[in-house]
Amino acid sequence: MNKNKILLAAALATAGLVAVPAAFAQNAANPTSQQGWYVAANAGYAGIDKGPYDNGAVAGGVTGGYRFAINPATSLGVEVGYQYLGQVTARGLSSDSSADSKLRGTTAGLNLRYNISPSWYGELRGGAFYAQGQGLTDSANPQYQQFNRTQYYAGAGVGYNITPQLSMGLNYNYYNGTGRDVELQTSAYTVSAEYRF
Asked: pLDDT per residue over 93-121, tens digit each?
């Protein structure tokens, strides 16, 4: 009985090893990875649900970088950008705009893109976020503070390649906007457009 299981496992492993080079050969014949310069813009909604803030605002940004093909279906991009994450009204202070939070900043990071097919892709991104923010501290006696801190961002997205140069995507990104006891951790839901040179 055990001998049959071992033979079956060995046969399946051998079949898998034979099939893998064939699959890569198909991808190599029609590579879908991208290499070269690109620019992108995004717009959408950024929300905060922390401390005195429980709301959202319009957000948007731009990025640009260079993508390297690391295999026939996968690319790794090095990118920089700027992200505006809105102005959010403090809970219970809708008539006092001086308590509104503001968050924006520059980004520098990596973008890993996997082409599921020639038309569809998924991607992961992350890196450093130089957060420039202001808002009320998350404390019993809130104070309005400004801060500039290097934090991080991370996200994921899916998209569609309209042409070899142009794509549209849906994205989720998290920006850790904290400093001086101000908690502006922001979730951004955006639509993006990318142009490749």
From this structure: 777 778 899 999 999 999 999 999 999 99
* Structure letter (DSSP) for residue 2: H
- Residue 153 CA to residue 126 CA, distance in Å, equals 5
Amino acid at 54: D
Q: Two tokens at 44?
A: 């959408």
Contact between residue 65 and residue 35 where contact means Cβ atoms under 8 Å apart? no
In eight-state DSSP terms, residue 34 is: -
For the CA atoms of 7, 11, 14, 15, the dihedral, rounded to the nearest 10 degrees, stands at -170
Tell me the C-alpha distance between 42 and 143, whole Å.
Answer: 32
With b meaning 16 or more CB within 10 Å and e meaning fewer, what string describes 75-101? bbbebebebbbbbbbbeeeeeeeebbb
Q: What b/e sequence results for 123-133 when a residue is b if at least 16 CB atoms lie within 10 Å of its CB, and e otherwise? A: bebbbebebbb
The pTM of the full predicted model, rounded to 2 decimals, is 0.82
Query: Which residue from 122, 121, 195 is spatially nearest to 156, judged by alpha carbons?
Result: 122
